[in-house]
Write a structure and sequence with these properties.
292 residues; mainly alpha
């Protein structure tokens, strides 16, 4: 009890949360890499069952090969070297290995320590801002899930239901105690978040015949509304649109990214959601008096 009390001290808890965030960031790298592959395996299994429901559609090897967030052990994709515990220390291992596999010297993407740093910094800031409280712990989880969704969407243009729906129901559950917003505001936020982008989607599709965004974006904005309440949605939509427009124009100018090539919107929603979580009320009061 005394140990928990010591860790909860304002001058200690942010540092503990930052270290915890680094470790969670290492796990988020696994989630980012494996969750889309797990979804693909599930889709293929379902398609195979529909195509030949009365036949054995999987080989014994496929059925026995477990693949989830825990097994198999992480390995180098180039040489198959099993990552040891000492090679899996957040940030430190990457620096010691000089960003290369210890077995084959294949470069390890800088994104791995970047995700760990992002998870650690956001967790530390959430702990400093909200303290050792339900809000502090909830804010850390919100940040971690947003980081995972951002990189999965960048890689695959998917926002998995396993994360967006978890975030949505988690926000509503936390706001039973009005942790970030009163429950009525959170429920309206979830509904309004989904319907606002759903309306934009159908308006764009009816006008152009094309799909402007995915259904995962609707669910992500609904989840943000469930956490922060409907009052935060105008700011989130405005910020995500601004950042998305700047990023899209920059991609077209500097990387010759074609207009017809899709750009994931999830990272911009996630970034706007994090800004709204930490600084939303201040921004609304100072810069958006009409929305406030």
């Amino acid at each position: 009890m005394a140990a928990i009390s010591g860790l909860a001290q304002p001058q200690v808890f942010p540092w503990v949360a930052a270290v915890l965030g680094l470790c969670i960031g290492s796990f988020l790298n696994v989630v980012i890499h494996r969750l889309p592959k797990m979804m693909e395996r599930e889709w293929r299994a379902q398609c195979a069952e529909l195509a030949a429901p009365t036949e054995a559609t999987h080989s014994p090897v496929e059925e026995s090969a477990s693949y989830n967030l825990v097994v198999p052990r992480s390995r180098c994709p180039s040489c198959g070297h099993a990552i040891t515990a000492l090679e899996n220390i957040p940030i430190v291992s990457w620096l010691v290995l000089r960003g290369k596999c210890s077995a084959c010297s294949t470069p390890i993407s800088v994104r791995y320590p970047a995700v760990e740093i992002a998870a650690g910094l956001t967790a530390g800031y959430a702990a400093w801002r909200y303290g050792f409280s339900l809000a502090g712990l909830g804010a850390m989880v919100f940040c971690w899930v947003m980081i995972a969704l951002t990189f999965i969407d960048l890689d695959t243009q998917l926002l998995p239901d396993d994360l967006t729906l978890l975030l949505l129901w988690g926000g509503l559950a936390l706001n039973l105690a009005a942790t970030f917003a009163p429950l009525p505001s959170a429920v309206i936020g979830a509904i309004a978040g989904y319907l606002s982008l759903w309306t934009v989607y159908w308006a764009f599709k009816l006008a152009t015949g094309k799909e402007g965004m995915g259904f995962g974006d609707f669910k992500l904005l609904a989840a943000i509304g469930a956490w922060l309440g409907w009052q935060a949605l105008p700011l989130v939509i405005l910020l995500s649109s601004m950042v998305g427009a700047v990023a899209g124009i920059s991609l077209m100018i500097f990387t010759k990214h074609g207009r017809n090539n899709p750009i994931p919107f999830g990272p911009y929603l996630a970034t706007a959601g994090l800004i709204a979580l930490f600084w939303g009320p201040e921004i609304t009061r100072r810069w958006l008096p009409i929305a406030g």
